[in-house]
C-alpha cells in the first residue's frame, strides 16, 4: 500500500504539468503536498518567502533579520500551520529558510509528519490566520481512495475524504 501511495504521489506533478501551467512561485499562492497512509499524514509546504516574510531578498535591517527568525520559529510550531482532526503526534518539523541568492526568487519549505490514533478526515489550516500573506493554497492530495488536486481559499480546511 505504501509503495502505491508514493507512486501515486509522484505522478501528481507530471499530471499537473499537463493539466495546467506549474503554479510555482506566485506571490500569495503556496503549494502543499499531502499524503495520507493509514494513520500517518505527511505534509510538505512550499511557499514563496514573500507570503511569510513580506519580502524575498536578503534582510536589510534588524527588523527583517528578526522577522526571518520569527517566521522560522513559528513554522516549527505545528499548531501554527496544520491541525489534523484526529489525535495526532507530530514529529519535529523540518523547516528550510531561504538563502536569499542575488536576483533569485526565494522559497520557504517545511515538512510535517503526523502519526494519529485514528485516520484523520480533515486538516484545519491555522496558517490562514497566522500568515496573512497566503491568498490560496494549491493542494496535491494522495489518500488510499486516490489522488486529487484542490485549490483552497482563506479560511477553508482540507477535507481528506
From TrEMBL:
Keywords, in A-Z order: Signal
InterPro entries linked to this entry: ZrgA-like
Pfam families named in the record: ZrgA (PF10986)
Protein name: DUF2796 domain-containing protein
Signal peptide interval: 1-19
Naturally occurring in which organism (per UniProt): Deefgea tanakiae
Amino acid at each position: 500500500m505504501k509503495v502505491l501511495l508514493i507512486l501515486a504521489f509522484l505522478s501528481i506533478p507530471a499530471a499537473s504539468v499537463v493539466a495546467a501551467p506549474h503554479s510555482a512561485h506566485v506571490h500569495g499562492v503556496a503549494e502543499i503536498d499531502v499524503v495520507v497512509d493509514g494513520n500517518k499524514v505527511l505534509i510538505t509546504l512550499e511557499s514563496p518567502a514573500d507570503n511569510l516574510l513580506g519580502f524575498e531578498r536578503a534582510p536589510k535591517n534588524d527588523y527583517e533579520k528578526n522577522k526571518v527568525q520569527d517566521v522560522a520559529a513559528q513554522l516549527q510550531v505545528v499548531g501554527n500551520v496544520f491541525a489534523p482532526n484526529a489525535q495526532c503526534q507530530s514529529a519535529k518539523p523540518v523547516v528550510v529558510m531561504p538563502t536569499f541568492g542575488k536576483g533569485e526568487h526565494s522559497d520557504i519549505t517545511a515538512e510535517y509528519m503526523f502519526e494519529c490514533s485514528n485516520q484523520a478526515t480533515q486538516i484545519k489550516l491555522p496558517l490562514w490566520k497566522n500568515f496573512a500573506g497566503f491568498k490560496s493554497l494549491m493542494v496535491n492530495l494522495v489518500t488510499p481512495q486516490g489522488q486529487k488536486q484542490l485549490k483552497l481559499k482563506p479560511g477553508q480546511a482540507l477535507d481528506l475524504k
